[in-house]
Amino acid sequence: MKTCVILNPWAGRGAAGQRRPELEAALRAAGAEFDLVETHARGGATELTYQALDRGYDCVAAVGGDGTINEVVNGLVGGRERLGREAALGIVPLGTGSDFVKVLDGFVPNDIHGAVRRLAAGRTRPIDLGKITVESPAGEERRHFINGLGMGLDAQVAVESLKLTGLKGFAVYLMAIIRALGSYKANVMTVRFDEYEVRRRLLFASVASGRSQGGGFLMTPEAMIDDGLLDICIVEKLRLDQIIRYLPKLMEGTHTTLREVTMGRARSIEVLCANGIPVATDGEVVATHATRVRVEVQPGAVSLVA
Length: 306
Hints:
Blueprint lengths: L1 E6 L7 H4 L1 H10 L3 E6 L5 H11 L4 E6 L1 H18 L4 E6 L18 H10 L2 E13 L2 E7 L2 E5 H9 L8 H14 L3 E7 L2 E13 L21 E7 L3 H13 L8 E6 L1 E14 L2 E22 L1
Parallel strand pairs: 1-2, 1-3, 3-4
Antiparallel strand pairs: 5-6, 5-13, 7-9, 7-12, 8-9, 8-12, 9-10, 10-11, 12-13
């Protein structure tokens, strides 16, 4: 399998770039046929994926975190539409949170050698993607996500995390949560899926194909990446003392039975908010004042090297 390895050197707060020699040595030792390129700007992995498809690579491997994987996924989907070419998705998880791989058996964040062995073996499986359309005063944006979509406080955490350049690992998310709690105001949101509708003041509404978001929070603990459905977690406005008390439950995935939490599963979801809400996909901020978000599942949309 001829593989284009796309390394985000800033992933993991720069740790991924420092491990490039180790990554290349592991790829050579595994006998992988590869070329390695680095991203140099936000969104760069998407353009590099287009180029890899145009050059006929069989696999494009994202080296970094969920944001890097997201960019490659959007390149694979966009390249299929623009060029009519396909490639499998490979992952070497070297990000700050690396939430998506936590749903994959045998994958361990920051494990270069395990990920390289999978790339060399080349076994693939089809997995689902989510497709979103976001409307805001800035216009309309469309993109795909592989793991999760946050709307509300959880997206505000992503906004705040971008400002924290001096921290690494879970400390980034913890400090971002503290800052987001100080700046975010719960808005009245309308969430529609299937025949169900929720309209109330919400802390956040999260839609996911994977189970973990935000560096280890099990928002949707029963989600599956290949069942043709998206899982939904809706949390009503909470007092600060409730948020502090419930955070451990959110990390363990035991929040689903709380009175203030609504869980669901659907093929399509619509979220409306007149005041505007922040939106983030796979940890990457898409909009800060979205008024309408439409989400739909795309079953088996990408082949994952697993």
